[in-house]
Amino acid sequence: xxxxxxEQRDPAWWGRRAWSLLSAVRARAxxxxxxxxxxxxxxxxxxxxxxxxxxxxxxxLREVPDFTPRCDAVYVNVGTxxxxxLPSMRAAASAGRPWVLDPVAAAASGFRMEACxxxxxxxxxxxxxxxxxxxxxxxxxxxxxxxxKGADSSHESVDALEAAKSLALSSGSVVAVSGAVDFxxxxxxxxxxxxxxPMMQKITATGCAVTALIxxxxxxxxxxxxxxxxxxxxxFGLAGEIGxxxxxxxxxxxxxxxDALYCLDEEMVTSRVxxxxxx
Length: 279
What we know:
CATH class: Alpha Beta
Number of strands: 9
CATH superfamily: Ribokinase
Low-confidence stretches: 1-6
Number of helices: 12
Order of helices and strands: HHEHEHEHEHEHHEEEHHHHE
Helix content: 40-55%
CATH topology: UDP-N-acetylmuramoyl-L-alanine:D-glutamate ligase
Radius of gyration: 17 Å
Structural class: alpha/beta
C-alpha cells in the first residue's frame, strides 16, 4: 500500500468500510461452512444469522466434496479436535474457498499443535486467536503444563504482536490477535480494533463466534482479508458494547449481544467503530 492510500484510511474511512461490509453481508447472505467445535456451534450460528449470513454446521468428510464448493467461505475451529474431524477440516480447507482458522488452545497437546500447523500450511485467509494461541503457533511449541491456561489467554494481545507479524509473513495469512485491543496484521501493516467489553470474555465461545463473523466478511472481501478481519472484529465488539448497556451479567450479555448485532445501523457503525492503523 502506498502512503496516499494509508492516509485515506482514517477512522471515518474504517467506519464507512465496516458499514459497507456489514451491509453487504446482510444483502448477500454468504453461506459459511463452519467445521467448528461443539461448544461454539450455537453462538457461532446465531452470530452469523444475526449479522445476515447463512451458517452451515457441516463437518462430515463425505459431504465436503459436494457441499464446500457451494459455500462462500469456510470457518475451521479446532476447539474440540478429534482424529475423526481432522480429515474434514483438511478437505474443507483445501476446497478452494476462502477460509479462516481458529487455533483454539493450539498448545494443549502435540496432536493439536501438529493439526494447527498442518492446517496453517493450507494458507487460510485469516488466522484469529488469542495472544497465547498466536505465540504458541508462531513458536510451533507446546509449553510446559504449568504455563498452560486452557483456551484462555495468559498474555495481553500486545505481547503477541511481533509473533503475529512473524506468523503472517511465514504463513502468508492475515493474523488477528484478540484482546483488549485486537491487532490485525499481514506482517507489514498492523491495524488495531478497540471495540468490545471485558465481560465478553465471560461468555464461552465469543472468540469462536467472531472468527465465524470474520469468515462472513472475508466472503464479501476476499481480496483484502486484513480489512475484512478488522471490520468484523470491530463490529462484533461494538455489538458487545451496545449489548452491555442492557445487561446485568454474562447470560444477559450473550442475548443482548446477538440482538445488537442484528440491530446495528449505519449511524451506530460509522460513529462508534474504533479501528486505526498503527504507525
